[in-house]
Design goal:
single chain, 409 residues, mainly alpha, Growth Hormone, Chain: A
Length: 409
């Protein structure tokens, strides 16, 4: 299949910078809340364990439920976005996250947490189909790379912001107060977007009383496009990389290189901050869609090499955070070009559905990674963690070019 022309995007001359910037900003602040919601509970596990008498295995299962629900909803929400438009779906997602965070702060049992984890997973699952539909259809083509860059940057900041907000408030007051603050943040963003709701309407949005959107055969026709499934596989691998970095790599580095506990914990923050910086550069590199596969390939080749150095080379403690910084910057550089892989694959009038299915690979990858890398950690095979990480990063290179190959079939 030949690559599909980009539709629904105005030319640079026809769209003022302020208009593009406003859409990018509104979408990105919502995306920050999505990533913030993914780390509502993990930083608070020590306090939740004590308050509810739950084991770490039980608390970890909450995240399995979260991402499992998010995966299912992400695929379904793409159809909702294409049928009803992105705005009502976005409002629903933010509202559910706010309710879930408030619920977390009020319940006194593990079962209560489980109920609100399902709500949080539903809320989190809508964002990628919503965000990319708005960006792809309302941001002018020459600014798409910067839009993807800002969008990715906001997600990284959401991950970094969650522990930075929740842990200090918990230490100063309680985890319940911290979660109530998180709920207020979600509702504050919802209020902001409500006041800016006219900016989130697209000319192609159907009226609420619209007749049937399209025939079912047309609704599901995109599933027969090989490149869609190539993108799905790519994002699944990408999610494994992120999950390993977040959950295992800093601790594995601590054991291998004798890092102090505080320095090991800082490696994740350093990685995320530098990843955000890489996305800024990646936004400029993505201004030419023709080179997005090469950008992804070079970026993850560098990241894989750095992973091998972390796993195999004897390193002084101070060198480890530096290598995490370099790896984060390399991976971040690939972010906007990664999103263009999907953009170039998406047929007209199927943006939400394609992004819903493709980005469901992120949730599946994040649920799969602990099953693959957790046993390595339990057995003390810390070198194997970094070798495995490098192998997945190298597979991403092949995955990017496989997307291009599938797009041409």
């Amino acid at each position: 299949m030949a690559s599909t022309p980009i539709a629904g995007t105005a030319t640079l001359g026809a769209v003022p910078l302020r208009q593009d910037a406003q859409i990018i900003g509104l979408v990105s602040v919502a995306h920050l809340i999505s990533h913030f919601s993914q780390l509502l509970l993990p930083p608070l596990f020590p306090w939740l364990k004590e308050a509810l008498g739950a084991s770490y295995t039980e608390l970890g299962f909450l995240m399995t439920v979260f991402f499992g629900v998010s995966c299912a909803v992400q695929a379904a929400s793409g159809f909702w976005v294409d049928k009803y438009g992105p705005r009502p779906v976005l409002f629903m997602g933010l509202g559910l996250i706010g309710v879930a965070a408030l619920g977390f702060s009020l319940v006194n049992s593990y079962g209560g947490l489980l109920v609100f984890v399902v709500l949080a997973g539903v809320g989190n699952g809508v964002f990628h189909p919503v965000d990319y539909t708005l960006i792809n259809k309302k941001v002018s083509a020459p600014r798409l790379g910067h839009a993807y860059s800002t969008h990715g940057l906001s997600g990284s900041l959401g991950w970094a912001l969650a522990p930075a907000v929740l842990v200090p408030i918990t230490m100063a007051s309680s985890y319940r107060v911290a979660l109530q603050v998180a709920s207020a943040m979600a509702f504050a963003v919802l209020v902001l977007l409500w006041f800016k709701r006219k900016e989130l309407v697209m000319p192609s949005d159907p009226p609420r009383q619209a007749t049937e959107f399209v025939a079912k055969s047309q609704n599901f026709a995109f599933l027969r496009i090989p490149a869609v499934w190539a993108c799905f596989g790519f994002f699944l691998l990408f999610a494994i990389v992120i999950s390993v970095i977040q959950a295992f790599a800093p601790e594995a580095a601590r054991h291998l290189h004798g890092l102090p506990v505080g320095m090991a914990a800082a490696c994740l923050t350093i990685y995320m901050v530098c990843s955000a910086g890489g996305m800024v550069l990646g936004g400029f590199l993505a201004s030419d869609p023709a080179r997005c596969e090469r950008v992804v390939g070079i970026a993850f080749a560098c990241a894989a090499a750095l992973s091998l150095v972390l796993g195999l080379a004897p390193l002084p403690s101070l060198a480890v955070p530096v290598l995490f910084a370099m790896m984060g910057f390399a991976a971040g550089t690939a972010g906007p070009s990664r999103d263009l892989l999907v953009k170039k694959t998406t047929p007209d009038n199927a943006t939400g559905r394609v992004y819903g299915v493709v980005y469901a690979g992120l949730d599946i990858g994040q649920a799969t990674a602990p099953l693959l890398f957790g046993p390595l950690m339990d057995r003390g095979q810390f070198v194997g963690v970094f070798i495995g990480l490098a192998m997945v990063q190298l597979l991403l290179i092949g995955g990017a070019f496989n997307v291009r190959k599938a797009r041409r079939t």
